[in-house]
Amino acid sequence: MKYCKKCKHIHEDKFDICTECRKPQKLYPIEDENTPVFLLSASGFEAQRVQSALESGDIPSSLAARKNNLSADAVTGSDINDKDILVPYSAYDKAYDICVGIGAIKPEGEEITVDMQDVENTAGSEEQVEMSPVKRTTVKILSAILIIILFCLVIWGTDFLTGFLTGFFK
């Protein structure tokens, strides 16, 4: 296997340039089993979830900031930018399996299947009827009138109740 020293992605031996970098980068053979290689990109909670899963699998990992993202940490108080999660090359296969297991990585060639009967049952139970513009305007006007009447009733009721209670103390 070969890897790109810039982005840390690993490639098959048949490749000579990195397909992930914007500029063609020469690939180098992995000589040390502890060489950090790219596993996936994630941000926020997802990055923490993946790192926790890797930690529970006794796989060391590190976060590397992506070069093309600026940090929003100063504005928001939390960093929401994507981070690259790097793992040692010797633990890459195990880390990949863990990420597939928790749903962080979708294996290549796997398709999401949907049971059409479930879709039809769901669609049948939630029928949406489009309103005409005239009907929609009428509903809006009636809703506004009803809310005004409700406010008036609350105000008049409160006024009547306070008048009734003050009558006991005169």
How are the strands of the largest sheet arranged? 2-1-3
* First-to-last CA distance: 95 Å
Q: What can be said about the biggest beta sheet? A: 3 strands, antiparallel
Q: Provide the low-confidence segments as ranges.
A: none
- Structural class label: alpha+beta
The helical percent reads: 40-55%
What's the β-strand tally?
6
Radius of gyration: 30 Å
Mean pLDDT: 81
The proportion of strand residues reads: 5-15%
Order of helices and strands: EEEEHEHEHHH
Number of helices: 5
What is the general shape? Answer: elongated
Structure summary:
This protein is α+β, with helices and mostly antiparallel strands.
Question: What would your notes on this structure say?
Answer:
With 170 residues, the protein is of the alpha+beta class. 42% of the residues lie in helices and 15% in strands. The protein contains five helices and six strands. The strands form two sheets. The protein has a three-stranded antiparallel β-sheet with strand order 2-1-3, with no helix packed on it. A hairpin with a 5-residue loop joins strand 1 and strand 2. The protein is elongated. The N and C termini lie far apart (95 Å). The model has no long low-confidence stretch (mean pLDDT 81).
